[in-house]
Amino acid sequence: QVQLVESGGGLVQAGGSLRLSCAASGTIFKINTMGWYRQAPGKQRELVASITNGGSTNYGDSLEGRFTISRDNAKNTVYLQMNSLKPEDTGVYYCNALHAVFQVVLPVWGQGTQVTVSS
Questions:
Q1: Which is it for strands 104-109 and 91-101: parallel, antiparallel or unpaired?
Q2: CA atoms of 98 and 11, how far apart (whole Å)
Q3: C-alpha distance from residue 24 to each of 62, 77, 92, 93, 112 (Å)
Q4: How deeply is 53 buried, as exposed, middle or buried, from its count of CB atoms within 10 A (0-12, 13-18, 19+)?
Q5: Which of 23, 44, 29 is CA-nearest to residue 100?
Q6: How far is it, in rounded angstroms, from Cα 34 to Cα 107?
Q7: In this predicted model, what pLDDT tens digit does every residue of 40-97 receive, in sequence order?
Q8: 78 Cβ neighbours under 8 A, 6+ residues apart
Q9: H or E stretch including 15?
Q10: DSSP state, 64?
Q11: Which helix (H) or strand (E) holds 103?
């Protein structure tokens, strides 16, 4: 079984920066795409950014340029650098990984980390 542990959330003023980390542990066969999603109060969970194990990235609408996703495959860890934060970036940020066990690929979610941006 694979677990994802997130860290790096917190309270920051508008314009500030935060760096989130998410490390996978447990019995790992192969981690494919890793990513970050967020959920604001009363809203649906949305994609923030994802990255394949080959390094190809995908960002949610209007986030590229302020947010940068990266990963360390050797450590099964994904990072999210968030700059120029805005109050609307507030929410719970969830780490996601696609864990491949032979022909079966299953999504794994972290517990979430709170990001609060004050105006």
A1: antiparallel
A2: 29
A3: 28, 6, 19, 16, 13
A4: middle
A5: 29
A6: 9
A7: 999 999 999 999 999 999 999 889 899 999 999 999 999 999 999 999 999 999 999 9
A8: 21, 22, 34, 35, 36, 51, 69, 70, 71, 95, 97
A9: none
A10: B
A11: none
